[in-house]
Design goal:
- It is a single chain.
- The chain is an alpha/beta fold.
- The chain has two domains: 6-251 and 456-480, Aldehyde Dehydrogenase, Chain A, domain 1, CATH 3.40.605.10; 255-437, Aldehyde Dehydrogenase, Chain A, domain 2 (3-Layer(aba) Sandwich), CATH 3.40.309.10.
- Helices cover 39% and strands 23% of the residues.
- Strands 15-16-17-14-13-19-20 form a seven-stranded mixed β-sheet, with helices on both faces. It has a six-stranded mixed β-sheet with strand order 10-9-8-11-12-22, with helices on both faces.
- Helix 1 packs across helix 7.
- The protein is globular and about 70 Å long.
Length: 481
């Protein structure tokens, strides 16, 4: 299966041919070329920024009903085409088809949520401490925002950045991950027919070194929202702060899943498998380290090994598959490198660690679990971003909490327990932005805040009504009688 069609950038309300084009390859079947997607050059990125800047004055003061109607139209079309777009997502990123359709559904719901938020943006009218004076506190659009999105959620993350940006009156220049441009292009095509004025939304595809660098460093871009690697995020923060641009970063995680002696073993195993291995472990909220207390440790290791033997790996579009491929050759090699590192450090390979042969040539890796590991090992400290996890034995809850917090990251953390005492204590004392009790660490709602602490996140939260903190600026007006 192959599409030879070329997919262009969207700049100033027009489809613009790329300086060059790049093949979008299916990681489940390397012979499947999904299409050729434009690679923007510096001039095209600057043209997109200029188009957004020109459109901003009118768009930022436009009526909220028209904004709401356009966003709702985008959400409705995404939902109506969820199977088609889910198939595209599964092809280009490797999620199983049910997961891909679920992600598309989430994207559609996000646009519809922010269609409502357009109508709910409120301010304050406050008496002044001075007689005869009143105070208005209002929110206004930030300006032109650059959105840089990752490959692991190729439609949901673009949606949760684009929708609030437009809802609050900003103009957008988005660069999707070069590995997975198809879903972002599909959103752009839908937006192009939804009634937004020319220049309000712009799509420029291509490499981070070219496209991303121009967006981040342009003084015509008022804010950058980035999701991706720690190293790139820190450089973006430095560049933005140097020119006093607003910045929002979502980066890495080394999320702990604590299993206490009193946990329901079957439940603990199932949520752990979901956390670590579904979506091929390629989620920033995935749990790749299980911190297990001594009384349940051996039973947990044995039960995990048995459960993992039933996980089916294969082509993302194949019925009955639990896990699809790793997204790329480079990511597969990174996963295999960490398997070797863990073994060299002395961790015991419980199951997995090898390639899986399927009917098509792809990047298939068996879900991999290590035990007998320690907190000092690299496998316990560094983000693998694949279907690779390890188990560390601890004495008790206090030791588990200390180890869970002993990381430079702080995105998501989970605990499996039947004790209300420990659940409440963990919620309060976990140094993570999101805490899950008897649930997988991966899996969040679209209408509540998303984000972490420490090295995982920087700036205000994403999603829900908290998104306004990044995409708007506060103005205080004083009115005399």
């Amino acid at each position: 299966m192959s599409d030879s069609k070329r997919f262009d950038n969207y700049i100033g309300g027009e489809w613009v041919a790329g300086a060059t084009y790049s093949d979008n390859i299916n990681p489940s079947d390397l012979s499947d070329v999904i299409g050729q997607y434009a690679q923007a050059d510096v001039a095209q990125v600057n043209a997109a920024i200029d188009a957004a800047r020109a459109a901003f004055p009118a768009w930022s003061t436009s009526g909220i009903q028209s904004r709401s109607d356009s966003l709702d139209k985008v959400g409705s079309e995404i939902l109506a085409r969820r199977e088609e777009l889910g198939t595209l997502l599964a092809r280009e990123e490797g999620k199983t088809l049910p997961e891909a359709i679920g992600e598309v559904t989430r994207a559609g719901n996000i646009f519809k949520f922010f269609a409502g938020e357009c109508l709910r943006l409120a301010g304050e009218y406050i008496p002044s401490v001075r007689p005869g004076v009143n105070v208005e506190v209002t929110r206004e659009a930030l300006g032109v925002v650059g959105l840089i999105t990752p490959w692991n959620f190729p439609i949901a993350i673009p949606a949760w950045k684009i929708a609030p940006a437009l809802a609050y009156g900003n103009c957008v220049v988005i660069k999707p991950a070069d590995l997975v441009p198809g879903c972002a292009w599909a959103i752009a095509e839908i937006i192009s027919r939804a009634g937004f004025p020319a220049g309000v939304f712009n799509l420029v595809m291509g490499s981070g070194r070219v496209v991303g660098d121009v967006i981040v460093k342009s003084r015509k871009v008022d804010g950058i929202s980035f999701t991706g690697s720690v190293g790139v995020g820190r450089q973006i923060a430095s560049d933005c702060i140097a020119r006093q641009a607003k910045v929002q970063l979502e980066m890495g995680g080394k999320n702990p899943q604590v299993i206490l002696d009193d946990a329901d073993l079957k439940q603990a195993v199932e949520l752990s498998v979901q956390s670590a291995f579904y979506s091929t472990g390629q989620r920033c909220t995935a749990s790749s380290r299980f911190i297990v207390t001594a009384g349940i440790h051996d039973k947990f290791v044995e039960a995990m090994a048995e459960r993992m033997r039933s996980i089916k790996v294969g082509h993302a579009l194949q019925s009955g598959i639990d896990i699809g491929p790793v997204v790329s050759k480079a990511q597969l090699q990174q996963d295999l490198d960490y398997v070797a590192i863990a073994q060299n450090e002395g961790a015991r390979l419980v199951t997995g660690g090898d390639l899986v042969t399927c009917d098509t040539e792809g990047y298939f890796l068996a879900p991999t679990l290590f035990s007998d590991s320690t907190a000092e090992m690299r496998i316990s400290k560094e983000e693998v971003f694949g279907p690779v996890a390890n188990i560390v034995r601890v004495a008790d809850y206090e030791a588990a909490l200390a180890m869970a917090n002993d990381t430079e990251f702080g995105l998501s953390a989970g605990i499996a327990t039947t004790s209300l005492k420990y659940a409440n204590h963990f919620k309060r004392h976990s140094q993570a932005g999101m805490v899950m009790v008897n649930l997988p660490t991966a899996g969040v709602d679209y209408h509540v805040p998303f984000g972490g602490r420490k090295g995982s996140s920087y700036g205000s939260r994403e999603q829900g009504r908290y998104a306004q903190e990044f995409y708007t600026v506060v103005k205080t007006s004083y009115i005399g009688s």
